[in-house]
Amino acid sequence: MLAGTEAGIINYRPRVPSITVPDYAGGSLVNLVAELERRLIGTSPSPGLHSTLAAAVPTVSTYVLFLFDGLGYIQLEHPGAAPMRRSLRAGLDAPFPATTTVSLATIATGLPPSQHGLLGYQLWLPEVDRVVNTIKWTTLWGEPVPYETASFLPAPNLWERLAKAGIEPITVQPGNFLGTPLTKALYRGCRVEPVFTVDEAVDATLQLAATPRRLILSYLPQVDFAAHVHGQQSDEYATAVEAVAWAWDHVASRRPSGVSLVGTADHGHVDFPKDRQIRIPKASHTDRVFYGDGRAMFVRGEGASLAGDLPATWFPVADVADWWGPKPQHPTFAERAPDGIL
Question: Are 158 and 108 in contact (CB under 8 A)?
Fold first, then answer.
């Protein structure tokens, strides 16, 4: 049921959108999270969705938020995504930069990156004086970084606010994520239910949704993994899309009464051909620190002179600070932010 490739998939070519600043006032991922929080407990530290978007979200006692890692709005054009495409109500902006750990921190806190402080996949942390891989919490060469990640994100986070108001927060997560530094950072105060297959994720989600006054975050990483490893033209990618589409369709058709099912992504995907991948010369690392990721390369130090040679476009941080979101900024925003972005 989950395997196989639909005819014509080899012709699938996702469109590449232009860059836009996320609409943190009501059209982004943080606003969806805030909308659900407002429906459940009446308040949220961030604005809810714009009224036209909010109208698509019913008021119920339990919400299931399906998070499809890497399955952005454009990826819904894939033939295997048809069940989710039929349920499409609107598109939302991912926070900047559009990468998993930034978006997951946005969900876990109900705050934009400017306020929760996780500013990039690779993050300069002045308190440890190095760049940290925020998925593995290691240095760029793989050494563990001694850091108590459970206290990394602001308090109270989304889960703690919900629990205080009598709403039980639960996340359904791959079992191999249990106990990792990232899980400790994201799910402080949240019950974690481990699963190991898509079928287990569906079963756990349906069982947990039978109890009222809950917010259940069910995380499915299959599409993101397939895109990174095999690319969006592959049979493996088609199988992954079909698997999560089946999960969505199955939960949607069997969810208990009084439960609303909401689906979203954390970001989309763009395949970069080898001839468009640029390596920064070793000499350019002198007196500079590079972090972020390959699509939005953060630079501590002078970066404008690199733009023409790479080639790339240089954005001084003063011109783009609002890409991470509105003020008030996280107390260490200025120290973690780069001098500019390539």
Answer: yes
Give the burial class of 251: count Cβ atoms within 10 A of its Cβ; 0-12 exposed, 13-18 middle, 19 or more buried.
buried
Degrees (nearest 5) of the Cα angle 288, 294, 295? 115
> What is the C-alpha separation between 158 and 187, in angstroms, rounded?
9
Rg, the chain, Cα only: 20
SS3 132: strand
How many Å apart are CA 274 and CA 23, to the nearest integer?
A: 32
For the chain, the straight-line distance linking the first and the last C-alpha, in angstroms and rounded, comes to 43
Sign of CA dihedral 214, 46, 268, 122: negative
195-222 pLDDT tens trace = 999 999 999 999 999 999 999 999 999 9
Whether 240 has a pLDDT exceeding 60, the answer reads yes
Contacts of residue 311, Cβ cutoff 8 Å, sequence gap at least 6: 278
Look up the pTM and report it: 0.93
Question: Which phi and psi angles does 299 have, rounded to 5°?
Answer: -130, 120
By CB neighbour count within 10 A (0-12 exposed, 13-18 middle, 19+ buried), where does 117 fall? Answer: buried
* Cβ–Cβ < 8 Å for 137, 181: yes
Question: What single-letter amino acid sits at 337?
Answer: A
CA 232 – CA 223 distance, rounded (Å) = 9
Looking at residue 9, its amino acid is I
